[in-house]
Specification:
The protein is an alpha/beta fold and about 375 residues long. It contains twelve helices and 15 strands. Strands 2-10-9-8-5-3-4 form a seven-stranded mixed β-sheet, with helices on both faces. Strands 11-12-15-14 form a four-stranded antiparallel β-sheet, with helices on one face. The structure holds pyridoxal-5'-phosphate. This is Aminotransferase class V.
Length: about 375
Amino acid sequence: MTKKREYRDDYDDKTLYIPGPTEVRDDVIEAMTESTFGHRMDRMTDLYTTIVEDTKEFLGTDNEVVILTGSGTEFWEATTLNLVDEHVLVPTCGAFSERYANVAERLGKTVHRLEYEWGEAVKPEDVREAIESADVHYDMVAGVMNESSTGVRNPIEEIGDVLSEYPDTYFAVDAVSSLGGDYVDIDEHGIDAIFASTQKAFAMPPGLAVCVVSDDAYDREVEKGDSSWYGGFRRTIDYYDRKGQTHSTPAIPIMLAYRKQMKRMLDEGHRARDERHREMMEYVHDWADEHFAMFPEEGYESQTVACIENTRGIDVAATIEEVSEEYDMAFSNGYGDIGEETFRIGHMGEHTVESVKELTDAIEDVADL
Ligand SMILES: Cc1ncc(COP(=O)(O)O)c(C=O)c1O
């Protein structure tokens, strides 16, 4: 689309139940309206060190935290450039894991796919088998924790445990649509890099990417010699150690919003947030079982994105449109080839069972369930 469509001042606000961005609280939006300050001022050091250290505390990690202007996509590139010389194993089970593989190919790496049908989860024993049977060395396994296209939550903890037995194979995890809403003990499971975007389960505005980096991953980049410039672990972490700031001018207003929301996340706690998301998942799961069916393989349903199989053959696009018109709520169709066969509900961030029930009531009304 090349023609300008003038942005207006009169859009209706829609409550977001899409797989991200999700709802952002008003006080978090308001936090962005502080007057501008310089990214090399002491005030910036206060802001950046606060959000980095609060994030470590929330996630319960001793690893380093990097927060950069950009989105999770940045760390598909950065993890590949920082950790991979040649061969990377990518278990693919949906659109986002496939895109991680595409990014690595575009960066000139040799990608080995461990392919699953959409809806299936990656199995740790298959990853072990792929490593054991390979006649090349994999520098990295690139996994996706929460396949937002299929609503599958992959067992990254168990995969990490397998990979701990292969210390020269680094484990990078795209947790873009789950971190903050689905508990993961990062340090316990040998995860070398795990990254997220702020607009998903963190419930912040879009515009920042967060990556938790192990000492091993940092050392690997140093030993490897070349890396991403913008998302280089060494550049970003050394800059933090020396100055408590980012290497280039960040989106300061979004960091102000981050600060506000991360305090709320700290107050709630990683475990309690996980529990709230689990309750939402169970609620949506029961609702789907009553009216439709869950799309993912049983036992691997995501805590943040429900992918529901359209077993009744409703007109998904029309239902989305009508729910939006009548209730000012937005949910999503299925992704790519499973567009009409499924639909998706993002139950992440600050949503609760009660707020998700408002959406399912609206769908029941519109689709006459
Ligand atoms: C699992 C997953 N990975 C990566 C991305 C890309 O994230 P971003 O658009 O924030 O770069 C998304 C976006 O929906 C996602 O769901």
